[in-house]
Amino acid sequence: MEQKIWKISEVNHAVKQVIEGALGPFWMEGEIGRLTVHRSGHVYLDLKDERTQLKAVFWRGANKVRKLELKTGDKVEVFGRLTVYEVRGEYQFSIQTLRTLGLGVLQKKFEEIKKKLELEGLFDKSRKKNIPALPKVIGVVTSPTGAALQDFLNVINRRFPNIWVKIYPAAVQGKGTEKEVAAGIEYFNKKCPVDVIVVTRGGGSIEDLWGFNDEFLARTIAASDIPVISAVGHEIDFTIADFVSDLRVPTPSSAAELVVGCQEELKRQVNDLTKHLTSTLLLYFEKIKRKYESLANSYVFQDPLRIIYEKQQYVDECVQKIEHRAAIKTERIKSRLQSADAKLHALSPKAVLNRGFSILKVRGTGEIIVSPDIKSGTAVNAVLKKGNLDLLVE
Predict the structure, then answer these.
(1) What beta strand segments (E) does the chain contain?
(2) Which pLDDT tens digit goes with each residue over 324-374?
(3) 368: DSSP letter
(4) Interval 23-34: pLDDT, tens
């Protein structure tokens, strides 16, 4: 049998189909060896462990690598799949997402805490308190030296410079963050009443923000009688504190803009509302005035007896209608009675007697004689038109 002679490209293509078809996407951990961030935005690196290494490529991963400040020697966890680069006959790991080693553990813990508190109803919209439209006093829990506080105060001073801001200094990164922030919230609830509490700090990695994922801090925020605004991190950062707070905003500046309106804008709104109210009241008073003038000129006040006279006229008209209808009804009944009387008169025995007939009765009993079969000598009485005759049957 003639043997097939393979080309190198055919071999590489076959290997590519076998490798890429055998393994699906999976997580893998390793230490970064060589690391090259290309100007195209792709990242080429070697991943290694104690015994071996594997080439990898992170397509369009330059921004992610820069954000995490990755360098040679860092340990990472990557998710992707094995692929074959046919041009060089090499297989490599194509990275879809990347995180520092240990981040997966934190993310898992984050999801566990989030799910637990969500099932308890701490994230429900029904339990969230309304943020006051214009608070008189604002309580801020943050680092007194952080940029987040300066951003917050700059916006407050620009938009509403005469509002009170009370600051509770607290660590916002590292060990003990959750206890200090929780203490600040309890301080404003129990010792220093304010209208709204703002918990804030700038952005950072999940490790930097981890204190705001603490269950104890989340329960402290949920138990606060004062509305709490969470302004932790940047727009892409989410913490447990964001979900349990009454309102979450992406940045400290956004919190300041939301918690107080612009003074000039509020003045304009008040002026507009005042003008609208004045105009509405004037229109209403003018309407009432026209109504009273119309009533004053009404015949009710000009000629009050007219109403009584009109009612009397109406009663008179009703009486006339009743009398007219009663007369018609009476005439109809009278006519029917006359007709009935004529019929009765025509059928009366007296009418027959008027025509010359008589009625024979047996004298004594008054029995009407209707047949000639009667005994001789019977005394009979004949009723005539103008009297009676006593007869004797022969």
Answers:
(1) 26-37, 43-48, 53-58, 75-85, 90-100, 137-142, 164-169, 196-201, 228-232, 247-248, 359-362, 379-384, 387-392
(2) 999 999 999 999 999 998 888 877 777 778 778 888 999 989 898 888 888
(3) B
(4) 888 899 898 888
Pairing type for strands 247-248 and 228-232 reads parallel
pLDDT at position 205 over 80: no
Helix axes 177-190, 215-223, angle to 10 degrees: 10
Pick the CATH number of 106-125+135-261 from 3.20.20.450, 2.160.20.10, 3.40.50.2300, 3.40.50.300: 3.40.50.2300
The CATH number of 8-101 is which of 3.60.21.10, 3.40.50.1240, 3.30.70.360, 2.40.50.140? Answer: 2.40.50.140
Q: Strand 43-48 vs strand 228-232: parallel, antiparallel, or unpaired?
A: unpaired
**C-beta separation of 385 from 393 below 8 A:** no
305: tokens are 């007896």
The whole-number average pLDDT for the span 99-112 is 76
CB-based contact 392:375 (threshold 8 Å): no
Amino acid occupying residue 205: S
| CA atoms of 241 and 221, how far apart (whole Å) | 7
Which residue, chain included where needed, has tokens 């792709």?
42
